[in-house]
Amino acid sequence: MPDFEWGFTLLLVSSGLMIGLMYSLIALGFVLVYKATDAINFAQGEFVMFAAIMAAASMDAGIPFWLAALLALTGMIAFCFGLERVVLRKLLGRPIIAVIMATIGLASLIRGFATLVFGAGVRAITLPVGDDPLYLGPIMLPPVQLVGAGVSLVFLAGFTWFFLRTRMGVAMRAVADNQTVSMGMGINVQRYFALAWALTGVVSALGGIIWGAMLGVDNQLPLVGLKVFPVVIMGGLDSIIGAVVGGLIVGVVEALAAGYLDPMVGGGTKDFAPYVLMILMLVIRPYGLFGTRRIDRI
Asked: What is the mean pLDDT of the chain?
């Protein structure tokens, strides 16, 4: 293979790794909810969009970026706390399908509300990092992707430490294993249920700001949430390490498909390649690379 093709491949892989880390950050929202409630939050993409809209609308009003980001962060934490208290707490102890259906309905409500209030136009989030890319040989690193990958790494490491090294993290894992037993052991299940959703709000705010800066903010941004499904399935729904590894794999595969397959077939392969990986993973290893293997005995 010629040298320039190796350089092009290296460029694609580096871009895919950074995009994959940003996928992992949003995938962490799925993992947080699943670890605490044993349910999947199908409104994760809408959470990301809602946070991005809050940040973009604040900046449109003349608010500086850092204050707009802080408003989006606190707004999402308050929103998730309120959602848990008003809606999801009443589902505590109910079948998991009840929580799943609630999040599906919530996704439609958020998307409709955001379009009704803020309109369907595209808004911009401008990060204060400049536009000049960083060159490392044949590799070009856009500032937005560098910032996004760096933020993702920091918070992924922080959440890993939280779950593995703190009493609160261990308690959240216990709640996910069995809510009834956790209650019997004196764990305040409602508090940790609320904490999981609040942390999801933090992740959604960070993901919304980063992806909004890359793609623009409109009612199509929740599609990023759908892109993350292959990530969490591949890595394992209850594994933070799996979210990272799955995100890196999906990001690289998507980038290579865009660089080599899309020009051959006219485009589109990068959009479905991650789902092909997801289907293969479900066939070969349904619980993911790092997910907990559960065996139900009858």
From this structure: 85
| Predicted local distance difference test score (pLDDT) of residue 4 | 44
Tens digit of each residue's pLDDT (9 = 90 or more) over 60-93: 999 999 999 999 999 999 999 898 888 877 776 6
> Look-up: residue for tokens 């799943």?
100
Q: Contact at 8 Å (CB) between 10 and 139?
A: yes
pLDDT over 90 percentage in the chain: 34
Cα–chain-centroid distance for residue 102?
Answer: 19
Work out whether the CA dihedral 192, 79, 100, 209 comes out positive or negative.
Answer: negative
- Residue 198 in tokens: 């609040």
Residue 92 is predicted with a pLDDT of: 67
Tens-place pLDDT, residues 193-213: 888 889 999 999 999 999 999
**How many CB atoms lie under 10 A from the CB of residue 131?**
9
d(CA 160, CA 236): 14
Given this model, what pLDDT does residue 90 score? 78
Residue 82 is which amino acid?
G
Residue 141's H or E segment, with its range, is strand 139-141
For 292, other C-beta atoms within 10 Å of its C-beta total 14
Distance CA(288)–CA(18), nearest Å, equals 22
Task: State the Cα–Cα distance between residues 258 and 260, nearest whole angstrom.
Answer: 6
CB-hemisphere CA count at 13 Å for 281?
A: 24
Would you say the C-alpha torsion 135, 138, 141, 142 has a positive or negative sign?
Answer: positive
124 phi, psi to nearest 5 deg:
-115, 145
Q: How far is CA 43 from CA 102, 124, 197, 227, 250, in A?
A: 9, 22, 12, 13, 21
